[in-house]
Amino acid sequence: MNFITKLIDFINGIIWSNNILVALLIGTAIYFTLKTNFMQFRLFKHMLKSVWNKEDEGKGVSSFESFCLGTACRIGAGNIAGVVAAISVGGPGSIFWMWLVALLGCSTSFIESTLSVIYRKKDSNGEFEGGTPWILEKKLNKRWIGVFYAIASIICYIGAIQVMSNSVTESFESAFHINKFALAGFLAVAVALTIFGKRNKIINVLNKIVPFMALLYIGVVLIVILKNATLVPLVIKNIFYQAFGGEQIIGGALGGIIMQGVKRGLFSNEAGTGNSNYAAAIADVKHPAKQGLVQAFGVFVDTIVICTATALVVLLAGDQGDLTGMVLFQESLKSHIGWIGIPFTSITIFLFSFSTILGVTFFGRNALSFISKNSILNIGYKILIIVMVFQGGIQENQTVWALADLGLGLMAIINIGCILPISKDAIDSLKDYEKNFLNQGKHKNVLENLAEEK
Questions:
Q1: Are 370 and 132 in contact (CB under 8 A)?
Q2: Residue 390 CB: number of other CB atoms within 10 A?
Q3: How far is CA 235 from CA 96, 240, 327, in A?
């Protein structure tokens, strides 16, 4: 077991510590931004409309439901802990670089999600399924790589589930002094009641949780902003000033500031890893590009909205001494809204983490279905999820967390290698969408036309 742990850490060191993956994702995002003619800026208004516009959707999963599913996996405890870590290590300037990587990453999310809709298929029940594994199989004829990607997905999700569960129990134990064992049991039961049932049960639950948790969190942050309205311009100015080193540039700290923002931005929105592809593929839309725009907007919400909200809470609170991590956020929020900031943090962590657990469980089930349709295997997977929720709630396993990092890294490498050579298909889809839907308003079913051509 010790050998396996060392091997995992060694591979993660190559992928993550040397910034190989960071460079790959950033380079890809810049390339797609240029190739799509800065679509995330040109079409931002339409991105927003696409989330709620139902005029060209069928009777299946809507764009909004797919958006909630994808956003559930993006928004998690990392939107708080990750942002606080970036500020603690890289200072306020790291937030600027987090914004930049998110804005660039919107184009990557558009490309990968659009391709997922183009190369999806219907299962035996007539429901859509798709994602990176299906692209590898249908377009590139590389099913074996698709299987490898699906396995990496499941490994990543199992690790993420454990960490999310642990975040919930630690937060509630700290705030309310509730026994971890009882909390872990409650969370495991709640997850079990949701994942055992109809395929769309998870989607229906997330359709209610995600908008509520986002509005609740943003609502509280708006109160904080209004209370500190005169300080907000100074904080924003300082973010831009520190982003380029400020007075620290002489000390060579600029590189560290940039990398903290870049890494936390990538880890948060996950554009380029292929995670959102599972959500994009199931949406019942008539044009692939529309769903690409929806998922691109998800990247914006995750980082520009939620992560920025966290950053403002911390930065507007001023100096909090040597506090770091979740404690720093809790105390910062407490300084703004009083003692209620502590329980509010715990409730937020619960909503963020619970939605992420459900989202990645759904994604993992899709990945498993690509490998095998065996119903017994599917039941075994659900049982494993419940066990990991309970185990993670009691005690975090560092080896499993390292496995999650490894799985995510492998997913990103395979996904980028998959979408880069065929990105023209998504770019052509965008051109067609702009020509026939935006400029002329024609609502033909492009997916049906594609199917006829094939």
A1: no
A2: 22
A3: 12, 9, 21
Nearest to 79 by CA among 18, 164, 19: 164
Task: Give me the average pLDDT of each 10-residue run along the chain (454 residues).
Answer: 74 74 86 92 84 60 75 72 77 85 90 92 79 90 91 87 83 80 89 78 78 85 89 88 64 58 69 84 84 88 86 83 74 85 84 84 88 86 90 76 80 91 92 78 51 47
* Amino acid identity, position 397: N
DSSP conformation letters of 18-62? T-HHHHHHHHHHHHHHHHTTSHHHHTHHHHHHHHH--TTB-SSB-
Helix axes 446-453, 423-433, angle to 10 degrees: 130
Instruction: Determine phi and psi for 53, rounding to 5 degrees.
Output: -75, 120
The neighbour count for residue 211, using CB atoms within 10 Å, is: 14
CB 356, CB 72: distance < 8 Å: yes
pLDDT at 397: 65
Return d(Cα 401, Cα 388) in angstroms, integer. Answer: 12
The 8 Å CB, 24+ separation contacts for 421-425 are 422/115, 422/135, 422/139, 422/140, 423/32, 423/35, 423/111, 423/115, 425/114, 425/115, 425/118, 425/139
β-strand 121-122 against 128-129: which pairing, if any? antiparallel
Buried-state track 104-115, b at ≥16 Cβ within 10 A, e below 16: bbbbbbbbbbbb
Q: Which residues contact 438 (CB under 8 A, 6 or more apart)?
A: 43, 46
- Return d(Cα 332, Cα 310) in angstroms, integer: 10
